[in-house]
Request: fold
Amino acid sequence: MKPKARGSLKKTTKARTRRTDGKKKATKVKARAKRKAPKRVLAKAKVKVAKSTVKTKVRVAAQVSAKPTAKARASVPSKAKAAPRSPSAAAAVEAAFTARIGAARPFGWGVRQTWAEGGEDPLEKVRAYLCTDEAPHWHYVTSGLADPGKVDAVPGATSSGLGYELTFRLARAADETEAPVWPVHALQELGWGILKARMKLGTGHYIRRRTVITGGNPPTVLKGYYLIADPQLPDIRSRTGSISFFELIGITEDELLQCEAGEPDALQAELLARSPLGITDIARTTETSELDHHLRLGALQRAFCQQCCAIAPKGVGQLTVSATLKEGQLDCVVNAPIPFVLGARAEAALRRIFLVQAAAGQPVEQLRAEIALPPDGAGSVVFEFVYPQGD
Reply:
């Protein structure tokens, strides 16, 4: 993910201009001329939108049934034509943010050059305010990913742009009077990678970062995000389609491995039990105990077996897997009648088995797994751990 220059962010300001008395009449005449021009442009835009929607497969039936009303539409009084249009994506997001914060003091950051002007920052604005629900925290909301001008149009799509904006809730320190800026940079960098890859994110997805989410300042062990629907920002409609708000919750390396091992639902339950609003505390570490060590290990073994059942070629009923983990690198060899390699989720489950054992004070050098895959799909697995020799 390409880091963005922090110098590109700026606080948004408004400029005011003043006319002299000598030019007051001339400027009024120009203003009248400019008022008429947008009406003609808007009329042309409506025609283009109507023509383009006929091409979409999803809306063909609606467009065909609407054609007989074309004559009736011409007889509609002029007042009906002046009905307010739906807001643009950016305006809809701003309205949702404004309605949510109430009387709270808003903070806002913009960019020196917008995407349409050739800028590289995908988020034109990031806003934040102090929310006191559940616990005092800063609630950040992005604006820019739902811009339809940044992605290729998909026939029949009902969402605007990527269809979502990101939110983030950061626990507020006792001495903070202004929203920290580091989440703005983190969201901008994340948005750049999302837009470049055209990621269609949703609730239950997770994102791994190459470094910790703060970039190291302030320090934290959180290395990724888990996504949920923002509990306080429901989906909205704009002129270009629907927009959802997905909230990022900071998670640790151990929790990322839990997702990669096929247990994201269990992690979501843990995260929301800790904070129903999904507030991220960068001082948090993974909570583990002796009691749940064997439960976690058992769950990982089952997840590993399920992944092997899913990817094993037809006709394979028995296989063995030998694996070693050295300096973070996992090497594994599969022995089966029909050669095949493990999938990413199966390897993630193996890696997590090593780390879970190490966290319990039992570092493993190697492991060997014997897996039985009966025709009914109810596989079983037996692990043999090789522990390092003592001095």
In short: Residues 24-54 form the longest helix (31 residues). The first strand starts at residue 9 and ends at 11. Residues 89-274 form one domain.
